[in-house]
Amino acid sequence: MNFSKVKGMIILSFLFMLGICSRPLQCHAMEEESLPQEALYAGAAVLMDGVSGRILYEKNGEEFLSNASTTKILTCILALEEGRMQDLVTVSAYAASMPDVQLNIREGERYLLKDLLYSLMLESHNDSAVAIAEHISGSIEAFAVKMNEKAAAIGCENTFFVTPNGLDGTAMVTLPEGTQIQMSHGTTAKDLAAIMRYCIRISPAREEFLKITRTPSHSFSSQKTQEGDRVRSFSCYNRNAFLSMMEGALSGKTGFTNKAGYCYVGALRQGEEEYVIALLACGWPNNKTYKWKDAKALFTYGLSQYEYIPFTEAEEDIGEMTAVEVERGQTKGLGE
What we know:
Elements lengths: L2 H16 L2 E2 L5 H5 L11 E6 L5 E5 L12 H11 L5 E3 L2 H4 L13 E3 H11 L2 H12 L2 H15 L15 E5 L5 E5 L4 H14 L3 H9 L2 E5 L11 E5 L11 E9 L3 E10 L2 E8 L9 H16 E2 L29
Antiparallel strand pairs: 1-13, 2-3, 2-12, 4-5, 6-7, 8-9, 10-11, 11-12
Helix pairs in contact: 3-5, 3-6, 5-6, 6-7, 8-9
């Protein structure tokens, strides 16, 4: 077999595995049309290919930062994977004590897990997050352990979650050598994008996650625990304005604390192309719209600069390739 042709097939197969390449095919052309970091407001940002998980653009993508309520995408997917939508969740005094934004659930009330998940993702209610976490794991501390284990399994390398709602918090961590350190709640843009990709593409509960996060509104009531209980009714509306800002907007979650600033994690799908973005430290009051401008800029950049090309269509001058030798093989080259 001709070694140059073998190399051609190897390269084409590599392009196929990546599933994405820049326009034109030569990767160096991307640098000529790269998105300047100063074009974004966010302190940290990532554009990820949703299909392969490849990072296409990053700005301080591995910087550890507070991420506010974008945390709730992991809370939601864990609850969907480990709970049942018809589970009855009893509200604790601690859950009922959470600060705004809150559903105003009361101690002793019971709700369907399904309804609290809509409250969590549409309106970002902090009390619903704690009620969900306590139902799944018994305490927020135990739930945080599950969150960090799941983040590590997804491939996150610099994420540490303390709270299920993204409110700022710290916890003592014992290192392998026995030293204790205090760690803060936070993640990186790269890790946050990976979590969102897991939620919409990999998780066995991905369809339920997409259904919840794409629902415009949801109405529900508390559940009676005994005869004579007062039933309260609620309506939640989707606060992810980006769903109507670009064609193909798929899912997303906003976040804000005084420490984190405005944050956003989202996904977009057009045809076979799918992109995930994460924005951290994207302005503070009165700059609430910065995250939408950055989201549009990143998604537009991905759509304009990248496309999926089947390896059978990729152009490659096989005649210019050199031979490929096989080391420590039964023969010197393939086909001998």
